[in-house]
Write a structure and sequence with these properties.
Number of domains of chain C: 2
Strand content of chain C: 15-25%
Strand order of the largest sheet of chain C: 6-7-8-3-9-10
Radius of gyration of chain B: 20 Å
Structural class of chain B: mainly alpha
Chains: A mainly alpha, B mainly alpha, C alpha/beta
Oligomer: heterotrimer
CATH class of chain B: Mainly Alpha
Largest sheet of chain C: 6 strands, mixed
CATH class of the largest domain in chain C: Alpha Beta
Largest sheet of chain B: 2 strands, antiparallel
CATH architecture of the largest domain in chain C: 3-Layer(aba) Sandwich
Strand content of chain B: under 5%
Distance between the termini of chain B: 33 Å
């Protein structure tokens, strides 16, 4: 277990955590403000990646592809909001789960039909394709650093938006006292649309940014969706700060667990069983973490006030 | 006079429902009809329907009556199935051992995870049941001696005192039907028993239940164990039906499907869980036969059912019946 | 040691900096109806929550028939004979009136870990439940689903549930809240009939009801007992008149 490897994996963990945050942020906003469980949030991430691949093929420019993909994902998200989700806000969680599960099934098959089942690829923009030397003997892909940086920038923007603007104030109030906000005469429907559109864009952004280092394929949103739910539940539903901290925590625990679990186990057991148990333990580590957090803090690490 | 009032207040479903009798009669007659067609295909399909109906009953017990939305119930199905497979790999195939073992393993898992899960409620409960489901899924995938991610084939179907009672598809079919009927009757009895009254009451208002003297947590945990055992039973049968077991049985999508089945049929009705499992799996099968892209139809259908058919198929049937009887 | 059914000693509770219960001491004797009155926000409902166990006090003692119940969860307090009604009606909406009450009977008679026999066919449960419903004048509505009862009927059902528990002490959190004058009168009549059978702690804003029913009255302001005594003493206590009763009694 060398120090360089530890550093590299820590950076990888951060990058994964930042990605999770981009997805979880929208999920926790939508859930916190609208009390709406949107399982389809994961396919919006997938759609972002696919749209970027498509627009890149058309324009040949990553930046253009990014902008067009975000715009298209936003338009599609709002279309979904208008035709389906809007009618689900006052339904119970179970019905929301089923309807949005239906949308997952549809979109997963949809992208397969349109773009085929084979994994696609998006090239890294040339300027950012290389590696950078962080310290002697340690190089790291620039693009992953770009992902980390852009995620942190988004987190900062979100922080400012939520804590300094009027919409942000309504969002914070809505997460804790939705009825009061609607009683104040705020156009709750418009607020919901803004929040929802914003969440969709964040998920799509995550999809675009990850597309160059992950294969773009149908169903890629499903596992990420579950992880994003783990994040918001650990962080406390409706809490942006909780989502940020939990996302980094999950990213680091998962990545480091996968790299070092066997080594750690070998400290306490013979190598052979360690090699068997290690990978299993590593893949369930975050779920163990979540169960532990919920056992001691049944409403997550940072429960939004007013909720229990 | 008091007993008259009591009878009036008895839940509607305590009285026997003609539709339920008809449903089981149809299931009993399927093998006779199947003999004239692609027999093993039909028997296999309907056996699968009945197996998932048992698991869906368990989910209905928790969601529909206990208000406990579980998103990890496929884990119990997997536990039951893996118990059969692992015992089989060690040469133990007799169901006098494997069935009680499958139930015991499921019950133990339900007891331990239930103790933790039931501390939370609402969405947190959904997520923590999912977490345990995922843990079971990953553990199954890591069982290298038993196939790991690829799964494992059963050496043989379960025997009873050494006899190959599941030898024919038809025998397995009727055995599954028997288990389904027993599970259904058990659930019904449980729901309307003293225990069930407390379990249902906890869903309505758990603070109230505590202030009249019930330790709600203990009742919910027992309910969770019962539902876990039913899941394990379904797994035991599923392993026998497919003669193959893999971690995919425990994936969160499977758990989601169980919830969908129950919602499809109608939450909190029990027979709705059976109707739901049947319509979900048959619809899937039918659409898949029609077009390769059946999911493009199936997904939107789920959305439409939620938007326009509240109460599921059973609820739909009831409202149609109500409309006719009014006219 | 006194023979008090309920003894509350020096109870304290605060939320952050807000002190809601500030050293409350109360004693209720057998069969006594003790009313707690006070302006909104005086900490009356919080007091009931702490006695019934849905909120834990920071400090003090609560004894029920000499047993310290401070650390017991609500369901164990209920088993020791403590029943309560809720300020916001909280009957089980999808259960029939009869089933709501039968559940309470079930809670004190035999184990509820019985899984096979339909509870609705247990005559013993139903008969006792019907008796409790009859006491509050709701027996003719036994088969109606609670959600379909009128507000007054739901308040009466709350009482019937409490009765069916055969409590040693009944905590009544504004049993007349939201009812019309006629329904209030009905509830007062029922409570009068029940008086003496078990001890009661009544929190209520309706002063006519309080003075018609109470054996003793404690006045709570800002989480503190301002005065305590027989209705007449309290009525004439100058501090009470100034703090609270003044305008309402003139």
């Amino acid at each position: 277990m060398s120090l360089t490897l530890l550093l590299v994996q820590t950076l990888n963990g951060l990058q994964f955590g930042v990605l999770l945050f981009l997805i979880a942020a929208g999920l926790t906003l939508v859930f916190g403000v609208m009390d709406f469980i949107n399982l389809a949030h994961g396919v919006q991430y997938m759609l972002g990646a696919y749209l970027a691949v498509m627009f890149y093929a058309l324009t040949g420019s990553f930046v253009l592809a990014l902008i067009l993909a975000l715009a298209a994902a936003l338009a599609f998200g709002l279309l979904l909001e208008f035709t389906v989700f809007r009618h689900l806000y006052d339904r119970d969680h179970l019905e929301q789960v089923i309807a949005t599960f239906g949308i997952i099934i549809f979109l997963n098959q949809g992208v397969k039909t349109v773009w085929g089942a084979a994994p696609l690829n998006l090239p890294i923009p040339d300027a950012l394709a290389g590696v950078v030397q962080i310290m002697p003997g340690l190089t790291y892909p620039v693009w992953r650093l770009v992902i980390i940086a852009s995620g942190l920038v988004v987190a900062l923007i979100l922080y400012v938006l939520v804590s300094r603007t009027r919409v942000g104030m309504l969002v914070r109030a809505g997460a804790t006292h939705a009825r009061i906000v609607s009683a104040l005469g705020v156009d709750i429907r418009r607020l919901f649309m803004i929040v929802f559109g914003f969440g969709t864009m964040l998920a799509a952004f995550a999809g675009v940014m990850i597309a160059p280092i992950l294969s773009v394929e149908p169903g890629m949103g499903d596992s990420v969706l579950i992880l994003a739910f783990v994040v918001i539940v650990i962080g406390g539903i409706g809490s942006m700060r909780g989502a940020f901290i939990a996302a980094l925590l999950i990213g680091l625990v998962d990545t480091l667990g996968r790299s070092f679990m066997i080594d750690i186990l070998r400290l306490v057991m013979p190598p052979s069983p360690a090699r068997t148990v290690g990978p299993a333990l590593a893949s369930m580590l975050i779920y163990v973490l979540m169960a532990l957090v919920l056992y001691f803090r049944p409403a997550g690490l940072f429960p939004a006030k007013g909720r229990s | 006079m008091t007993s008259l009032a009591a009878a009036k207040s008895a839940p509607r479903a305590v009285r026997f429902n003609a539709a339920v009798v008809l449903m089981f009669a149809v299931l009993a007659l399927v093998p006779l009809a199947a003999a004239f067609g692609p027999e093993s295909y039909v028997l296999g399909l309907v056996t699968r329907v009945m197996v998932f109906a048992i698991a869906a009953l368990a989910v209905d017990l928790l969601c529909g009556f206990g208000g406990l939305v579980t998103f990890g119930h496929a884990a119990f199905v997997g536990l039951g199935a893996y118990t059969v497979a692992i015992a089989g790999a060690h040469g133990v195939t007799d169901m006098t051992i494997t069935l009680p073992l499958a139930l015991a393993v499921s019950a133990a898992f339900a007891y331990v995870t239930g103790t933790i899960c039931l501390r939370t409620s609402g969405v947190y409960f959904i997520m923590i049941t999912l977490a345990f489901g995922q843990m079971a899924y990953f553990i199954a995938g890591s069982l290298a001696p038993y196939g790991g991610d690829d799964g494992i084939t059963l050496p043989a179907r379960s025997t009873l005192f050494g006899f190959a009672v599941f030898g024919s598809d038809r025998a397995l079919y009727y055995a599954t039907l028997g288990f389904l009927l027993a599970s259904y009757l058990l659930c019904r009895a449980v729901v309307y028993s003293r225990f069930g009254r407390v379990f249902r009451g906890a869903r309505e208002n758990s603070t109230r239940m505590a202030t009249i003297g019930f330790d709600v947590f203990r009742f919910q945990r027992v309910g969770y164990v019962i539902a876990g055992c039913l899941g394990g039973l379904a797994g035991f049968l599923l392993a026998n039906a497919t003669e193959f077991v893999s971690p995919a049985y425990m994936s969160w999508q499977r758990s989601g499907e169980l919830i969908i089945m129950v919602l499809f049929g109608g939450l909190g009705t029990l027979h709705g869980a059976i109707v739901g499992a049947a319509s979900y799996l048959l619809l899937e099968e039918g659409l898949a036969g029609l077009t390769e892209n059946w999911k493009l139809v199936f997904g939107p259908m789920l959305v439409l059912i939620v938007l326009f058919a509240r109460g599921g198929l059973v609820g739909l049937a009831a409202s149609i019946k109500a409309r006719f009887s009014r006219e | 040691m006194s023979d008090a059914v309920l003894l509350v000693e020096n109870l304290r509770k605060s939320f952050g900096g807000l002190v809601v219960t500030d050293g409350v001491t109360l004693e209720i004797g057998p069969g006594e109806l003790h009313a707690v009155i006070g302006p909104n926000g005086a900490g009356k409902t919080t007091l009931i929550h702490q006695i019934s166990g849905t909120l834990s006090p920071d400090d003090g003692r609560i004894l029920l028939n000499g047993t310290d119940i401070m650390l017991l969860p609500p369901h164990e307090r209920a088993r020791l004979g403590l029943a309560r009604s809720f300020q916001i009606t909280s009957v089980l909406p999808r259960f029939s009136a009869l089933e709501n009450v039968a559940l309470a009977v079930q809670a004190r008679s035999g184990s509820s870990f019985r899984f096979l026999r339909p509870a609705a066919t247990e005559a013993a449960l139903n008969d006792e439940a019907m008796a409790a419903l009859a006491e509050v004048g709701l027996d003719h509505r036994a088969g109606v689903v609670a959600a379909h009862l009128s507000h007054g009927e739901k308040r009466a059902l709350e009482l019937a549930i409490a009765l069916a528990l055969e409590p040693k002490l009944l905590l009544l959190d504004e049993p007349m809240a939201g009812t019309g004058p006629e329904e209030s009168e009905r509830i007062v009549a029922v409570l009068k009939k029940l008086k003496g059978r078990f001890a009661m702690l009544l929190v209520e804003h309706d002063m006519n009801a309080v003075f018609a029913l109470a054996d003793r009255i404690s006045v709570l302001t800002y989480g503190r007992v301002l005065a305590s005594g027989a209705p007449n003493e309290v009525r004439n206590d100058p501090a009470v008149m100034q703090a609270y009763l003044g305008e309402e009694l003139e």
